[in-house]
Design goal:
heterodimer, A: 486 residues, mainly alpha, 2 strands, B: 219 residues, 79% helix, globular
C-alpha cells in the first residue's frame, strides 16, 4: 500500500501541476509532493530495514535492501533539489513564462516517478521501460532554456541514450530467453531469474551481459559511452543537473548490479569482475584527462561524475565484501556531494551568467556563502577527510590491494591525484580575484541553500563514524548483491 | 504440414523485414523512407500475427494489433506530418556512398550471424533460425543512424532498430510479456513525439535539419 503510494504521489503531483492555474499553487504542490515523497520513501525503507520485503501489484513491485537504499537516495536528493528548484525557477522565470515553469515542475515529478519505478519493480522489462522513461522525462528539461546549445545537448542525449538503452533491451530479452528455455514459463522477474541462475546457458548469459554492460553503461555514463553526459548535465538547469548527475547515473548502475548478481551465479564472478574493472578504469582515465584543465565548471562537475561512476565500477569489479561495500557507500557519498555542488553551480550561474571558469572571478567576495559551501563540497568530492568520500574510496582501493591486480590500484590512485590537482586548481581560480564590476555583492539565493545542510551533515557522519543503522542498511543491500561479511 | 511450413514462413517474413532496412539505406527521399518504415512494420505485425496463430496466443495477437496501430498508422502519420512541415530540403549526401554502404551492411550481416550463433544454436523454437537476421537488422539500424546526417533519417534508423529488437524478441521467445511490450510501445511513441518537437526546434534554430550543424559542445 505504502509502496503504491510512493509511486502514485509524483504521478498525481505531475498531473495536478498541469491542471492548476496560479503559480503559487504550482509551487505548493511541487514542494508538498517532494517532501511527502521523502516521508513515504523513508517509511518504505524503514520497513525493509526491519526485515520485511514489501511486494505489491501482484509481484510487479518489490523492494529489497538494494531497492530501499536507492529509494532513500532518490527521494532525499529529490526533495533537496525540489526545494532549491523552487527558488531557482523563481529567479530564472517570471510570471510571463508560466508554461515553462509548469513544464519544469510537471516533468520534475515525472522524472522522480520513472526513477522510483525503475528501482522498485521486480520485472526487468518494466525496469527497462522506466529507465528509458527517465531519458524521455529529462529530454525537455535539458532543453528548458531552448538555446541552440541546450538543444544540441538534448538531441544528442535523447538519441545516444535511447540507442544505448536499446542494447540493454536486447540483453534483457536474451536473459529472458535463457530463463524461459531452462526454467519453463517464468515472468521476466529478477527474483525468478536469480532463482534459476545456476541452470542458465552460460554462453547466452555472457553474450547477454555484454549487451547489458554497454546498454545500461550508457545510462550510467561509463566511458566510452559517456559522450552525451557532459553536454546534457552542463546544459540542464541546476536542480535537474543535480538529480541527473547525483541520482540518475546511479539508477543505471543499479540496473547493472541487478544483472551482475545473476551473471555471477550463472558463470562465476571471475567473468564480470575484469570487465567492470576495465570499464571503470577507462572512465576514470577519460575524466582525468579532461579534468587537468577544465574550462567550464558545470562540465567539470559532469566529468567528475564520469570519474566517480568509474570508481564505483572498480569497487564492484574488485568485489568481495569490502569492495562492494565501498562501492555502495560511494554511490551514496557521490550522490550527496555531487548534487550539492550542482545546486551551488546554479547559484554561480545565476550570479555570473556564464559557465566559463576564467570569467568567474572573486567568488569569495561576490557571494561568500556559495563560495564557502562550494569549496567545502569540492574538498568532499575530491576525497579529503573528514568527508565520506575519503572512507569509501579508501575501502574500494583497500579491496583492490587485497584482490589485485595491484597495478590497477596504483593507476587508479594516481588518476585520482591528477583529478585532485586539476579540480582544486580550477576552483581556486574561481574563488579569488576581484569580481567583474556588473556583479553585485551577495548570494543570489541563500535560504534555498538551507537543505544542503543535510548533505553536509550526512557526508560528515559517513566520513567520521559508521552508525549501526547505516551498517545494517548497507548489509541488507549487500546480501541482495550476494556478498556477506566473511 | 503447418509445422513444416511455419519456420519457412517466419524466415521469409524476417528477411522481408531486413530487406526493408536495406532499402532504407538506398532511398534518398524522406517520404519514401517513411513509407518503407510503414511497410517494414506491417510485415512485422503480420509475422507476429502468424506466430500468435501458430501458438494460439491471444496476448501476442493483441501485441500484433497494437504494433500495427502504432507503427503502421500513428508513427508514419506523425513522421509524414513532420516531412510536410519541414518542406523539401536538398538531400544531404550520406558520409558513405551507396556501394560502400552496401559492402558495410553485408559485413554487418556476417557479424550478426557470428555473434548470434550460440543463441540460435541453443534455441529449441522453430523460429530460431531467423534470430541472426533480426540482429543484422539491429546493426543496420545503428549504421543508418551513424551514416545519415538528417535528423529525420536518424529517427527512422532508430525506429528500424527498435523494430529489429522486437523481431529478435519474437523469434527468440515468442515475444516478451504483454505488459512489458505495451510499456515499450509507450516509450517508443513518446520518444518519436519528442524527437519530432526537437526536429522543429533544430530547424528553427539552425535553419537545417542536418545534425552536422550541431557541433558547438566540445571538451
Amino acid at each position: 500500500m505504502m509502496l503504491v503510494a510512493l509511486l502514485l504521489m509524483p504521478l498525481i503531483a505531475s498531473a495536478l501541476i498541469m491542471l492548476v492555474r496560479p503559480r503559487v499553487w504550482l509551487e505548493i504542490i511541487h514542494a508538498l509532493a517532494a517532501l511527502s515523497g521523502l516521508a513515504v520513501g523513508l517509511m518504505v525503507a524503514a520497513r525493509v530495514w526491519r526485515g520485511d520485503v514489501p511486494v505489491a501489484v501482484g509481484g510487479l513491485l518489490r523492494v529489497d535492501g538494494l531497492s530501499a537504499l536507492m529509494v532513500v537516495v532518490i527521494t532525499l536528493l529529490g526533495a533537496i533539489a525540489a526545494l532549491y528548484g523552487l527558488g531557482y525557477i523563481r529567479v530564472e522565470y517570471d510570471d510571463s513564462h508560466l508554461p515553462r515553469v509548469r513544464g519544469f515542475f510537471a516533468l520534475f515529478h515525472l522524472f522522480i516517478f520513472t526513477m522510483l519505478l525503475a528501482v522498485t519493480t521486480d520485472n526487468l522489462g518494466i525496469m527497462w521501460v522506466a529507465i528509458e522513461g527517465t531519458t524521455l522525462a529529462t529530454a525537455f528539461l535539458v532543453n528548458l532554456h531552448n538555446t541552440p546549445r541546450s538543444l544540441e545537448a538534448a538531441y544528442k542525449y535523447l538519441i545516444l541514450s535511447s540507442v544505448g538503452i536499446a542494447l540493454a533491451f536486447i540483453g534483457t530479452v536474451l536473459f529472458y530467453y535463457a530463463g524461459v528455455s531452462r526454467a519453463g514459463e517464468i515472468a521476466v522477474n529478477w527474483t525468478s531469474l536469480r532463482a534459476a541462475a545456476s541452470t542458465l546457458n552460460p554462453q547466452v548469459v555472457r553474450l547477454a551481459f555484454a549487451f547489458i554492460l554497454v546498454g545500461y553503461g550508457t545510462k550510467a555514463g561509463l566511458a566510452p559511452m559517456h559522450t552525451w553526459l557532459p553536454d546534457a548535465h552542463s546544459e540542464a538547469p541546476a536542480p535537474i543537473s543535480a538529480l541527473m548527475s547525483g541520482v540518475l547515473l546511479n539508477v543505471g548502475l543499479y540496473a547493472l548490479m541487478r544483472f551482475k548478481v545473476v551473471v555471477d551465479i550463472a558463470v562465476g564472478a571471475h567473468f564480470t569482475g575484469p570487465w567492470l574493472l576495465g570499464i571503470g578504469l577507462l572512465s576514470l582515465t577519460v575524466a582525468a584527462v579532461f579534468l587537468v584543465v577544465p574550462r567550464n565548471y558545470k562540465r567539470m562537475l559532469a566529468y567528475s561524475s564520469v570519474e566517480h561512476i568509474g570508481v564505483i565500477c572498480m569497487g564492484l569489479g574488485f568485489g568481495g565484501y569490502w569492495g562492494v561495500l565501498g562501492a555502495l557507500l560511494h554511490v551514496v557519498n557521490h550522490a550527496l556531494s555531487k548534487s550539492l555542488l550542482f545546486i551551488l553551480s546554479g547559484n554561480i550561474l545565476l550570479k555570473y551568467q556564464t559557465t566559463d571558469i576564467l570569467r568567474v572571478r572573486g567568488l569569495w567576495r561576490a557571494s561568500p556563502l556559495t563560495a564557502g559551501a562550494f569549496t567545502a563540497g569540492t574538498l568532499a568530492l575530491l576525497g579529503v577527510p573528514p568527508f565520506g568520500l575519503f572512507m569509501s574510496e579508501f575501502l574500494i582501493f583497500r579491496a583492490g590491494v587485497e584482490s589485485g591486480p595491484v597495478w590497477v590500484v596504483i593507476l587508479g590512485v594516481a588518476l585520482l591525484a591528477v583529478v585532485f590537482a586539476g579540480m582544486l586548481g580550477s576552483v581556486n581560480r574561481m574563488l579569488y580575484g576581484t569580481p567583474p564590476e556588473k556583479v553585485e555583492h551577495g548570494d543570489v539565493l541563500s535560504w534555498s541553500l538551507a537543505p544542503l545542510v543535510v548533505n553536509f551533515a550526512l557526508l560528515l557522519v559517513l566520513g567520521l563514524t559508521f552508525p549501526d543503522a547505516v551498517a545494517d542498511a548497507l548489509d541488507q543491500a549487500l546480501r541482495v548483491l550476494g556478498v556477506s561479511r566473511a | 504440414m503447418v509445422a513444416e511450413l511455419f519456420p519457412k514462413l517466419v524466415t521469409l517474413l524476417s528477411f522481408t523485414v531486413l530487406g526493408a532496412a536495406f532499402l532504407l539505406i538506398v532511398r534518398r527521399d524522406l517520404a519514401g523512407q517513411v513509407r518503407l518504415f510503414a511497410v517494414q512494420s506491417l510485415t512485422l505485425a503480420v509475422l507476429a500475427a502468424v506466430i500468435a496463430a501458430f501458438t494460439r496466443s491471444i496476448e501476442l495477437a493483441g501485441v500484433a494489433a497494437a504494433l500495427a496501430l502504432l507503427k503502421v498508422v500513428v508513427i508514419p502519420r506523425v513522421l509524414t506530418r513532420a516531412v510536410a512541415k519541414i518542406g523539401l530540403q536538398p538531400a544531404a549526401l550520406p558520409y558513405l556512398g551507396t556501394p560502400a554502404t552496401l559492402v558495410v551492411c553485408g559485413g554487418l550481416v556476417t557479424i550478426a550471424f557470428y555473434v548470434m550463433a550460440p543463441v540460435a544454436a541453443s534455441n529449441p523454437l522453430p523460429t530460431a533460425e531467423a534470430i541472426p537476421i533480426a540482429f543484422a537488422g539491429v546493426l543496420i539500424g545503428f549504421f543508418v543512424m551513424i551514416n545519415r546526417r538528417r535528423a529525420l533519417t536518424q529517427i527512422l534508423g532508430f525506429l528500424m532498430l527498435e523494430n529489429s529488437i522486437f523481431l529478435l524478441a519474437l523469434l527468440a521467445t515468442y515475444g516478451v510479456p504483454f505488459i512489458v511490450e505495451m510499456g515499450v510501445f509507450l516509450d517508443v511513441l513518446v520518444a518519436v513525439l519528442i524527437m519530432e518537437v526537437f526536429i522543429y526546434r533544430i530547424k528553427e534554430n539552425f535553419d537545417s535539419i542536418e545534425v552536422d550543424r550541431l557541433g558547438r559542445l566540445k571538451g
